[in-house]
Design brief:
single chain; 318 residues; Chitinase A, domain 3; seven-stranded antiparallel beta sheet; 9 helices
Length: 318
């Protein structure tokens, strides 16, 4: 369907920018002129898509309003789920008309309004998810209108494609450099933290570098690497930032002990069922140098407060 063509195009075009900027802020090393060219290039590509899909009748002011509502996190006239349903229904009807050899028509003013707003919502969500909140929206819309009105463009589709490829390649390089700097800093700070922490009362360090401190020692069996365990936990960084908690979700987690990070696999085998413990896990026993999203940058030393609720022996699961 046409709607799928439009939205998949948008996803493929924008997805490479994911994580490149904070809300309403230019990425590091990017100028206002580059953002202007980025906005116009994206507008050219989307205008071409609208043109090929015979959507020149869209109400661009409504389309723009919808994008703005999403990016500003305002209440939307039509939410994403309703937008998806409307677009699916609308383009199915258009497709049926084409299959019957009839000219597809735009529909009523109300339908065009809903169509324009729904497409804007979907595009706004893509911009939001891809952290492209810093786009120059008037320039983006101007490019779409230039294409649909068949005006002379500041640069054509081929030039727009080349600019976008160059731009997002640059953004990825900047991101990679920044992530490497953060990872190096995290490694140094983690090593300092662990060197100090191992001197704290009750902290035990294993040959691998794992540190743990028993809060409450249970009297049940100790798990083997091949066992399943049920646990509650809270995960934080060394600065106290919480990144995960089974307590917050209101449910324990059950998992194979050999299917988690090395620090958990090793550490949980050291404590009996019913214990509560702190694990201080160096990055090489956690997720290493690879970032796990914004919450877990590369080379993060992790702290877990874990309550080992139940050991499920391997033979019990067979």
């Amino acid at each position: 369907m046409k709607t799928l063509k439009i939205m998949l195009f948008a996803v493929c075009l924008i997805i490479t920018a994911e994580g490149c900027a904070q809300k309403n802020a230019f990425p590091k090393g990017v100028t206002a002129a580059q953002v202007d060219s980025l906005s116009y290039s994206l507008g050219v590509m989307m205008g071409m898509n609208f043109q090929q899909s015979k959507l020149a009748y869209l109400d661009m002011s409504v389309y723009t309003q919808a994008i703005g509502d999403v990016l500003a996190e305002k209440d939307q006239k039509i939410d994403m789920m309703a937008a998806q349903m409307f677009l699916q229904d609308y383009f199915m009807k258009m497709q049926e008309l084409e299959q019957e050899g009839m000219e597809s028509v735009a529909g009523s003013a109300a339908q065009i309004d809903s169509l324009s707003y729904s497409l804007g919502v979907m595009m706004g969500v893509q911009f939001q998810q891809s952290k492209l909140n810093y786009l120059n929206m008037p320039t983006y819309v101007q490019a779409i209108e230039d294409v649909l009105a068949e005006k002379e463009l500041r640069f054509d589709m081929m030039a727009a494609q080349m600019f976008l490829q160059t731009y997002f390649t640059k953004i990825q390089e900047i991101e990679r450099e920044e992530m490497e700097k953060v990872a190096a800093k995290n490694l140094e700070e983690g090593q300092k933290f662990l060197a100090k922490n191992k001197k704290e009362k009750g902290v035990i360090e294993t040959p691998s570098g794992l540190q743990y401190k028993i809060i409450t020692e249970g009297n049940g069996p100790k798990p083997a690497e091949t066992d399943m365990v049920e646990a509650h936990y809270i995960g934080t960084l060394i600065d106290g930032t919480k990144f995960d908690s089974s307590y917050d979700r209101g449910e324990t987690m059950t998992f194979p002990l050999n299917g988690v990070i090395k620090g958990w696999t090793e550490g949980l085998q050291l404590i009996p069922e019913g214990s509560k413990v702190f694990f201080y896990i160096p990055s090489e026993l956690a997720y290493g140098s690879q970032s796990r999203g914004l919450q877990l940058p590369g080379n993060s030393t992790l702290i877990f407060e874990i309550e080992l609720i139940k050991v499920i022996k391997a033979e019990e699961t067979e």
